[in-house]
Amino acid sequence: MGKDQIRLLIVEDVPQVAQYIRGLLNAQSTIKLLEVLTDGSKAAGQISQLRPDVIVVDALLQGRIKGLQLVDQLHGGGIGLPMIVLTVPQHPIEPDPERGIHAVLMMPFSGFDLMNKVSGVHHSFQASAQAAGSRVVTVFAPKGGVGKTTIAFNLAVAMAQAGRRTALIDGSLQFGDLRSLLKVPPDAPSILDLPTDRVQESDLADVMWRDPSGVDILLAPPRIEQAEMVTVRDVDKILSLLRRVYEVVVIDTPAALTDTTLSFLDACDTIVEIVTFDSTTIHNTLAMADTFRSIGYPPSKVRYLVNRADSSGGMDTSELGKAIGRVPEHYVVSDGRLVIQANNRGVPFVLAEPGAQVSLDITRVAAELLVGDRVPVGARR
Ligand SMILES: Nc1ncnc2c1ncn2[C@@H]1O[C@H](COP(=O)(O)OP(=O)(O)OP(=O)(O)O)[C@@H](O)[C@H]1O
Ligand SMILES: [Mg+2]
C-alpha cells in the first residue's frame, strides 16, 4: 500500500510551522511527507531526487530564493507537478494553475484542510494529465497468428503519419514480436529498463526505441523468462506516463490472456479485436465477448477488425457478422506479397507501398479510430 501514498515535499523555513505540519501528518498514511526543505535554492535538486507528487511552498519563505520566486522558478522549469502555496490572511494569494499555483492553503489550517488540498490537487492533476493525454488502443485477438503484430505496427505508423505523436508497446512480453519484426539488437533497451518505482518522463527518452517510421516503441524484454518481471503495476504506471507524453499509444498483445495482457485491456480506451474467417477464431471471439461482458467492459470498448477480409474461406462478411453476433467495424484486405515482404524487411507496408489496398485500409482504420478524438480536458471517463 505504501506505493499508493501521495508523496509530499514541503519548502518551509519556519521550524514551528514545519513541526505543526509534521504533527498533522503523523496520524495518517494517505500522505507521505518526504522532507521539509528550509532552503529554496536546494528545492530543484531535491525534487528530482525525491520525486514528490505534490509540493507545498511557503509564500513567505526567506533566504536566497523567496517563496513565490521559487514557485515561478519551478514552474518555469517545467516541473510538471502541482504546487500548493502556504500563506497568511495578511498576504492573500489566489490559486493560479497557469502560474503553477494549484491551490492556496491559508494559515491557520487544520489537518483536514491540508489533506484535502494535497489529495485534491494530486488527483485532479493526474486526471487532467490523463484526459489531455491520449487514445490508448490495444490490438488483441484470442487466437495466435491472425495479424495482431502486423496490424499494431502498421496502425501505429499510420497514426504517426496522421500527425499524432505515437508510441507502440510490445505487449507480447514473452516473445517480443516487435523485436523480431524490427530486428532490433538484443541489447536494445526494453520495458525492463524503466525504473519500477517512480517512472517519470525523462526516463522514457533512454528507453524508447525510435523507429525510422516515426513511431517510438517500448520493446518487450529480450529473453522469454524475463516476461514475468513485468507486473500489472508496472503496466499501469507505464501507461499513465505514456498517456501524458504521447497522443496515441498502440499496444500489441499475445494471444494468451495473461494478467499483464488483461491490464493492457483494462487500461486502454479501445480494444481492436482481430477476427478472421476461421471457425476457431470465431469460437474464441464469442468466448472472449462473454468474458469481456462479465468483466464489465461496455460493448463500445471493443471494435472488431476483420483481417484478410477478402480471403473468406467460403464465408461472406455478413455470415461472419452473424457468427460473432455483431457487424465488424473495420476491414483490412489480404496482401500476401506486400505484407510478408514488408514484414521480412522490418518496415511498415503503409510506408513501403502507401497506395496498396492493404495500406489504404490500415490508414482508414487509423482515421476511424481517431474520430471523436481530442475530447476536452476532463471529459473522458
Ligand atoms: N492482411 C494481411 N495480408 C497478408 N498477410 C498477413 C496479413 N496480416 C497478417 N499477415 C501475415 O500473417 C502472419 C501472422 O501475422 P502476425 O505475426 O502479425 O500475427 P500475430 O497475431 O501477431 O501472431 P502471434 O499470435 O504469433 O503474435 C504473418 O506472416 C503476416 O505477414
Ligand atoms: Mg504477434
In short:
With 381 residues, the chain is α/β, with parallel strands linked by helices.
Following the backbone from N to C, one meets helices and strands in this order, namely: EHEHEHEEHEHEHHEEHEHEHEHEHHH
Which fold does the CATH topology of the largest domain refer to?
A: Rossmann fold
What's the mean pLDDT score? 89
**Rg, Cα atoms, Å:** 24 Å
- Hetero ligands: adenosine-5'-triphosphate, magnesium ion
- The CATH class of the largest domain is identified as Alpha Beta
Largest sheet: 8 strands, mixed
How many helix segments?
14
CATH architecture of the largest domain: 3-Layer(aba) Sandwich
Secondary-structure class: alpha/beta
Q: Give a count of the beta strands, DSSP E runs of length 2 or more.
A: 13
- The total tally of domains equals 2
Distance between the termini: 25 Å
Kindly describe this structure.
By secondary structure, this protein is an alpha/beta fold. It has two domains: 2-130, Rossmann fold (3-Layer(aba) Sandwich); 134-370, Rossmann fold (3-Layer(aba) Sandwich), CATH 3.40.50. Helix content is 41%, strand content 17%. It is built from 14 helices and 13 strands. It has helices at residues 15-26, 43-50, 67-76, 111-132, 148-161, 177-182, 201-207, 232-245, 259-267, 279-295, 317-324, 336-345, 349-352, 357-370, and strands at 6-11, 31-37, 54-58, 83-87, 101-106, 135-140, 166-170, 209-210, 216-218, 248-252, 270-275, 302-307, 330-332. Strands 8-9-7-10-6-11-12-13 form an eight-stranded mixed β-sheet, sandwiched between helices. A five-stranded parallel β-sheet has the order 2-1-3-4-5, sandwiched between helices. Strand 12, helix 11 (317-324) and strand 13 form a beta-alpha-beta unit. The protein is elongated and about 80 Å long. It starts with 5 loop residues before the first strand and ends in an 11-residue tail after the last helix. The model is unreliable at 373-381 (pLDDT under 50).
